[in-house]
Amino acid sequence: MANKTVIIAVVNKAYVEQGDDIYPTMLDLFLESFWVGENTRSLLDHLLIVAVDQTAYDRCKFRRLHCYRLTSDGVDFTGEKFYMSDDFIKMMWRRTLFLSDVLKRGYNFIFTDADVMWLRNPFERLSKNESEDLQISTDVFKGNPWSERNCINTGFYYIRSNSKTISLFELWHGMKGNSAGMKEQDVLASLMKKGVFRELGLTVRSLDTLYFSGFCRDSRDISAVTTVHANCCRSITAKVADLMAVLRDWKTYKGSSMAGKAKHAANETFRWCRVGSWKKYKISSMASKAMHAANETFRCSKHIACFKSWRVPNKTLY
Q1: What distances in angstroms separate CA 153 from CA 69, 244, 305, one per listed residue?
Q2: Are 110 and 8 in contact (CB under 8 A)?
Q3: What is the pLDDT of residue 186?
Q4: Domains of the chain, with CATH numbers?
Q5: Which residue(s) pair with 51 in the sheet?
Q6: What tens digit of pLDDT does each residue of 215-227 get?
Q7: For the Nucleotide-diphospho-sugar transferase domain, which residue ranges apply (predicted)?
Q8: Distance (Å, rounded) from C-alpha 39 to C-alpha 237?
Q9: What span, in angstroms and rounded, lies between the C-alpha atoms of 190 and 247?
Q10: pTM for the full model?
């Protein structure tokens, strides 16, 4: 992109190759969302897939994406990493260090987990105010984008490269050795609540779940939602099942919305021409109103698989 902005996602074998040849994988769904989203296909040209193991890297190259192989001495990031396990925490901190290096190279970026569906182009919704250093998603949005009470989530955020954000990442990663039992997201939230963001002079906007939603808090309006994150879910299998439902609902919504727009366009260009035109107009008008009503009352599927995943003991996957 013109202002040195990239999109970054991190994947491992568990996200690109599920057991027993299960299809689709998380990566499949992630890429599919760019295909079916609104004004999102061109964004794939700016997507960098960071692979933390060889299998993920090979799959990325096979898809002819922009791929980077991230290595880490002494740690195997190949399989599923249980939530809050030692390997899970190590992988999150390794990710943070890598992203810090990206900032130091002068790149702005959107970081996105691969379990985030891109239904619309987020750059059209994110603030273009260059004085805002960080715009970050939330599990729960309290109504005030500047409040330090918002429950931030590092699964999706847009950050600008400058001295303040680089200092934040250095301080953040520097807390690695003093945060036993905490994942990197918890540490960042702690820094925010302690006023460190303000001390560094950072301007940080928390993103409204109306637009940047997740399974923790669904958007109230499908005509506005931009991304959907499979947060508040324990297993990759459950995430895949419920994200498939998200994309299915999205395609249904798009189909009904396009039909409604076509009917509206027909009404806008209606011309009296012959006997029977009034009857045809009434039919098209009623159909258009029905489509509009359907959009107004559209409801997405419940996240049943993720809800049930919490009942399974010892399967605490992020």
Answers
A1: 25, 22, 21
A2: yes
A3: 92
A4: 5-236 (3.90.550.10)
A5: 11, 69
A6: 999 998 999 999 9
A7: 43-243
A8: 28
A9: 34
A10: 0.84
